[in-house]
Amino acid sequence: MLDTLKKSEAFSEIITNNPEMLAIFQYIESIAYTTQPILITGETGVGKEMIARCIHKVRISRGNLVVVNVAGLDDNMFSDTLFGHARGAFTGADQPRRGMVELAAGGTLFLDEIGDLAPASQVKLLRLIQDGEYLPLGEDEPRYTDSYIITATNQDIWKLQRIGKFRKDLNFRLRTHHINIPPLCERSEDISLLVDHFLEEAAYNLGKKKPTPPKELFTLLGTYSFPGNIRELRAMVFEAVSRHKSKVLSLDSFRAHIAQEQENRAAPGDPGSDENSPFSQLRELPTIKQATLMLVNEAIKRANGNQSIAAKILGISQPALSKRLKNQRLRAETGMLYNASNR
């Protein structure tokens, strides 16, 4: 896939065969020399910082990539971190401090978790983007920067804007160029590639021989939603390899992780209050028997016929699922015999 890119080496660290990811790489190359900011959005763990690094490499900047996570920074900390301060700017400021903006001169400033930025800090960031102007604490004369700005968030900035937590003008400035990274659950073709890569990485880090993954592993992972995305998959593989003892990798730690995550996501409150219910858009609800039948059949389909994995998806034991499937077959056979006898 990378052979269609002009600077494929800039994307070599990202493991993917996903067409949407390739389209993102091509888009990055098309805006490589823009002076406008780029906003990267996507769920936690999809690799927003890696995409920022790709952009920096494609631009061939003479400066460094400087990464700042702005989550949890109040306005004073934001100003001091980004813009620095003069000696004596506040109590304890015995020496001047260079801010991250200055360290990113000629390069790229990447601001992560931008959705958490305080309102006062948003004004300062807007000025930095529009005019390249910033004011270190304790100084009267503004300074100017030629650093390129990339921001990222896992939040919905449009929603933050609607509820008054994010400035409209800053929102529009940040998304002059916008990249949205698809979650891992929409990149099923990447799972086997990533697992192989993480197995090799984990084996090297743990001083073990790279284990062989069973075919059932990819069926199991293909049914999982990965709320933590690639970061979560990496952690799952490392945990499995750390417990690995035989030639073939065990599925036990993967199953345990998925079961724990499903338990954690189980709604403790009134299920009727869930706005994302799959039944909310239905005019007529199926009966319990119909809904159960559809759910079981869908689980079997997603598990490629593997009853053990299907049972995990449904949150029941494998014997319980086998009994349910047997009863379904008996009812179907009984119905066919009855219809035949009445012809």
UniProtKB/TrEMBL annotation:
Positions in coiled-coil regions: none
Question: What positions does the domain Sigma-54 factor interaction occupy?
Answer: 14-242
CDD domains reported in the protein's UniProt record:
AAA
Transcription regulation in keyword set: yes
Family matches, as Gene3D superfamilies: 1.10.8.60, Homeodomain-like (1.10.10.60), P-loop containing nucleotide triphosphate hydrolases (3.40.50.300)
Q: Which InterPro entries match?
A: AAA+_ATPase, AAA_lid_NorR, Homeodomain-like_sf, HTH_Fis, P-loop_NTPase, Sigma_54_int, Sigma_54_int_dom_ATP-bd_1, Sigma_54_int_dom_ATP-bd_2
Q: Which GO terms describe its biological process?
A: regulation of DNA-templated transcription
**Tell me, what is one Gene Ontology molecular-function annotation carried by this entry?**
sequence-specific DNA binding
Its domain of life reads Bacteria
Sorted UniProt keywords: ATP-binding, DNA-binding, Nucleotide-binding, Transcription, Transcription regulation
SUPFAM superfamilies associated with the record: Homeodomain-like (SSF46689), P-loop containing nucleoside triphosphate hydrolases (SSF52540)
Identification of the protein by name: Sigma-54 interaction domain-containing protein
List the source organism: Desulfonema magnum
User: What taxonomic classification does the UniProt entry list for its organism?
Assistant: Bacteria, Pseudomonadati, Thermodesulfobacteriota, Desulfobacteria, Desulfobacterales
